[in-house]
Each structure stands twice: as C-alpha cells, then as structure tokens.
Amino acid sequence: MSSKDQNLSASPGVLHSVPAGCKIGVVTAQWNREITFSLRDACIETLLQQGIEEENIISVLVPGSFELPSGAKMLLSQFSLDAVICLGCVIKGDTRHDEYISQAVSVGIMQLSIASGKPVIFGVLTPNNQEQAQDRAGGKYGNKGVEAANTALQMIQLAVEIRQKDKKSIGFS
Ligand code: RBF
C-alpha cells in the first residue's frame, strides 16, 4: 500500500496505554529541514499526546539522513531508551545519491534495531520531489512523524506484552 492510500497521521494499529516512564529518542536529519523539522514536531506532539513525559523524550539533530543510524546508536549507548525514532527526508536528485543514502539508512536502522533489541523506527521520506515531501509532512497524506511515533509506541507495547506473557508462563499472575 502506498502512502497515497493511507493517511500517515492515522495509526493502523490499536494503541493502548503507554507504560509509565517510557523513554524515547528522536533523531532528526537537518538536510531538507523545512520537511524534517515538521516531521519532528508532529512526532514529539504525538508522543506527548499519548502520555510520554517531555523529559523522557531525548531529541537530537544529525547533519543528514546518512548519519541517522549512528546518531541513534549514540543515543542508545548513552541512555536507557525504550525506542528510537529516526526522521529524515531524502529527495531524488539528478544523480543516484538518494538511492545510496536511502539504502544505507534503511539497512543501518534495521541492523541497529536487531543488534540492540530495541525498536529503531524508520521515519524517512523518500520522495521524488519537494511537493511529494510536503504532502507527507503535514500535507494531504498526513505526517510521517505521527506514523513514526505511533509505530514506536506500538513496538513498546509489544515489548510489554511479551514480558507479561513470559511472567505468566513462569507462574506469575
Ligand atoms: N541528506 C538527506 O537527509 N537528504 C538528502 O536529500 C540528501 N541529499 C544529498 C545529496 C548529495 C549530493 C550529498 C552529497 C549529500 C546529501 N545528503 C542528504 C546528506 C547525507 O545524508 C550525508 O549527511 C552526507 O553525505 C555526509 O555524510
């Protein structure tokens, strides 16, 4: 399904209550900042609305999307986080730079997530042009920052659910 068929600000999953004291990292690329700062603001707003406390949201900037995985790794090494959200926007240009960056970032984020055992969320737009980016950063297709925040919260809930199943299986509650 393309983002044209789905408003990015509408969560596809069901959100229950977020566990108290959750700590979430947000890493934002500064390239195409008029887009990425809009993703970041909508992302943080969604986390706050869902009950994450402001002091438990650690937001940092990296130069470009290529640096998102290393920025996320630095945050995970320094803080005890429940999830990290990576936000960026890689716009197609005259050369194939966008393919190299997008490929490296998506693989880097996935590898970090698996290696760390923590959800690391891919909140990166890969549009063909500025207009497509704006459509997905608060325009007609919603805001990918909201989708990324909701995805992080759903993954945190999954971790809680799995811990609860484990407690039940060894005789607790
Ligand atoms: N970073 C982005 O986040 N989005 C882009 O659209 C983007 N385009 C770039 C185009 C070129 C030609 C170059 C050299 C870099 C671009 N970057 C972009 C920056 C990249 O993610 C990274 O910060 C730099 O390559 C330094 O490692």
Summarize the structure.
With 173 residues, the chain is an alpha/beta fold.
Describe this structure in words.
46% of the residues lie in helices and 17% in strands. It has five helices and six strands. It has helices spanning 33-49, 68-78, 97-116, 130-135, 144-169; strands at 24-29, 57-62, 83-89, 120-125, 137-139, 142-143. The strands form two sheets. A four-stranded parallel beta sheet has the order 2-1-3-4, sandwiched between helices. A two-stranded antiparallel sheet has the order 5-6. Helix 1 crosses helix 5 (144-169) and helix 2 (68-78) runs parallel beside helix 3 (97-116). The chain binds riboflavin (RBF). Riboflavin binds next to strand 3 and helix 3.
